[in-house]
């Protein structure tokens, strides 16, 4: 996914809040849902966008879904920003 789509995915308060939650470590979908006062479907939509932007990973274990940060994408963003500044 290109940098434009990645930055677009970051341009939402709820998605950034999800990323902050995942900064502390891997979380199940239900753990993430509990932090928000919106429907599970809404959070699932945001998680889907973050997945498509490669900002998070999804691991499936039996009937559970676990999400974690893809830190390499954040390194790519920092490299891109550093490149622009030069």
TrEMBL record:
Keywords: DNA-binding, Transcription, Transcription regulation. Residues 1-86 form the HTH arsR-type domain. InterPro entries: ArsR-like_HTH, HTH_ArsR_DNA-bd_dom, HTH_MetalResp_TranReg, SdpR-like_repress, WH-like_DNA-bd_sf, WH_DNA-bd_sf. It comes from the Bacteria. Gene3D superfamilies: Winged helix-like DNA-binding domain superfamily/Winged helix DNA-binding domain. This is Winged helix-turn-helix transcriptional regulator. It comes from Streptococcus pacificus.
